[in-house]
């Protein structure tokens, strides 16, 4: 796990849980069972740690579904800020890193389960087009935002697809991000968008 992402997970542990407890060894299914039974906050650091585990090709969005059901936006400020910092850091780690799993499409779809305005993640994506973020966007567009985590989030997925057709994105990917794409990818992306 990269430095900033590791720090964001550490902050979750400091805010919600005890890193010296047995929770740190629980598998995802056990954490989700306990989180669903009223121990969400205690399980949240471990669930987020498992979400960003590089050995898990497609992490679960269930933890964020439980956060939304628990109305996390009304939690005390330190708890909200720790969860937001984790989400923001995971997103930046994803779009500025290589294209290994999980994909930017998967991570954005999972983050949509927090029910926070997606502009929080789309703005930084456009700001990072001069690098790997352009490749991540091209992949998501070419695969038609097909992450299984968009299930039940069709409105959010439509918002993201609409955003990809905005002038800012089209000009950004053409004038800035295109140099980072393999031959022929930019034309395929533009064919899909226009």
Sum up the structure in keywords.
194 residues; mainly alpha; 10 helices
Outline of the structure:
By secondary structure, the protein is mainly α.
Could you describe the 3D structure shown?
With 194 residues, the protein is mainly α. It contains ten helices and no strands. The chain has helices at residues 3-16, 28-51, 62-69, 77-96, 104-111, 119-127, 132-142, 154-164, 167-175, 185-193. The relative contact order is 0.11.
What is the strand and helix layout of this fold?
Layout: H1 3-16, H2 28-51, H3 62-69, H4 77-96, H5 104-111, H6 119-127, H7 132-142, H8 154-164, H9 167-175, H10 185-193
Helix pairs in contact: 1-2, 1-4, 2-3, 4-5, 4-6
Low-confidence blocks of residues: none
Tally of contiguous helical segments = 10
Helix fraction?
A: 55-70%
Strand content: under 5%
């Amino acid at each position: 796990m990269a430095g900033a992402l590791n720090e964001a997970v550490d902050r979750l542990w400091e805010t919600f849980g005890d890193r010296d407890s047995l929770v740190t060894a629980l598998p995802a299914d056990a954490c989700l069972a306990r989180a669903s039974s009223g121990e969400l906050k205690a399980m949240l650091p471990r669930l987020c740690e498992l979400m960003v585990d590089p050995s898990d090709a497609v992490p679960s969005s269930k933890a964020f579904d439980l956060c939304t059901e628990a109305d996390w936006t009304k939690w005390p400020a330190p708890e909200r800020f720790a969860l937001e910092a984790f989400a923001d850091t995971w997103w930046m780690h994803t779009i500025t890193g290589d294209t290994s799993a999980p994909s930017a499409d998967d991570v954005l779809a999972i983050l949509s389960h927090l029910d926070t305005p997606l502009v929080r993640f789309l703005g930084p994506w456009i700001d990072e087009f001069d690098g790997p973020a352009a490749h991540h966007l091209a992949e998501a567009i070419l695969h038609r935002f097909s992450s299984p985590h968009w299930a039940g989030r069709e409105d959010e997925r439509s918002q993201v697809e609409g955003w990809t057709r905005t002038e800012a994105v089209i000009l950004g990917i053409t004038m800035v991000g295109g140099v980072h794409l393999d031959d022929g990818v930019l034309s395929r992306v533009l064919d899909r968008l226009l």
